[in-house]
């Protein structure tokens, strides 16, 4: 079992920045590929970014590419999402997820993830 707890959400003006964290506990964090997803009101959950458990490989949704950066610190068992140049359409609940994928594997499909956090609200005002 892996427990995930997100933090760092909040209210920010358009053009601003936020940094989300996802702290993991339980089984060996370094064995898990990690991802960030988001869900806006009335919409389906969508992929945002993913990182392999080695940290070597990352992948982003087109909508956030160049603005968001995913990273991880396996020693601290934490994955991060740095969000810059935020837009009102980035408003959503952001979730982190973990999957026991091989070394450099990226996981972008939500149903492949075994563990999910409770989510943190990000609101971007115009």
What is the oligomer described by this structure? single chain
Helix content: under 10%
What Rg is obtained from the alpha carbons, in whole angstroms?
A: 13 Å
Low-confidence sequence ranges: none
Proportion in β-strands: over 45%
Count of extended strands:
11
Overall, the morphology is globular
For the sheet with most strands, the description reads: 7 strands, mixed
The separation of the N and C termini measures: 40 Å
Order of helices and strands: EEEEEEEEEEE
SS field, number of helical segments: 0
Can you tell me about this structure?
- The chain is an all-beta fold and 126 residues long.
- It is 0% helix and 50% strand.
- The protein contains no helices and 11 strands.
- It is globular, with a radius of gyration of 13 Å.
Write a brief caption for the model:
With 126 residues, the protein is mostly beta strands. It has strands at residues 2-7, 10-13, 18-26, 33-39, 46-51, 58-60, 68-73, 78-83, 92-99, 115-116, 120-125.
Spell out the blueprint of helices and strands.
Elements: E1 2-7, E2 10-13, E3 18-26, E4 33-39, E5 46-51, E6 58-60, E7 68-73, E8 78-83, E9 92-99, E10 115-116, E11 120-125
Parallel strand pairs: 2-11
Antiparallel strand pairs: 1-3, 3-8, 4-5, 4-9, 5-6, 7-8, 9-10, 9-11
């Amino acid at each position: 079992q892996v427990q995930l707890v997100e933090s760092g959400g909040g209210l920010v003006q358009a053009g601003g920045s936020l940094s989300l964290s996802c702290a993991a506990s339980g089984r060996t964090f370094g064995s898990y590929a990690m991802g960030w997803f988001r869900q806006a009101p009335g919409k389906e959950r969508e992929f945002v970014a993913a990182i392999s458990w080695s940290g070597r490989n990352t992948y982003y949704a087109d909508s956030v590419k160049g603005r968001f950066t995913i990273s991880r610190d396996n020693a601290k068992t934490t994955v991060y999402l740095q969000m810059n140049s935020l837009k009102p359409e980035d408003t959503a609940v952001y979730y982190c997820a973990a999957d026991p994928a091989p070394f450099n594997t990226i996981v972008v499909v939500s149903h492949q993830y075994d563990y999910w956090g409770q989510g943190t609200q990000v609101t971007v005002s115009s």
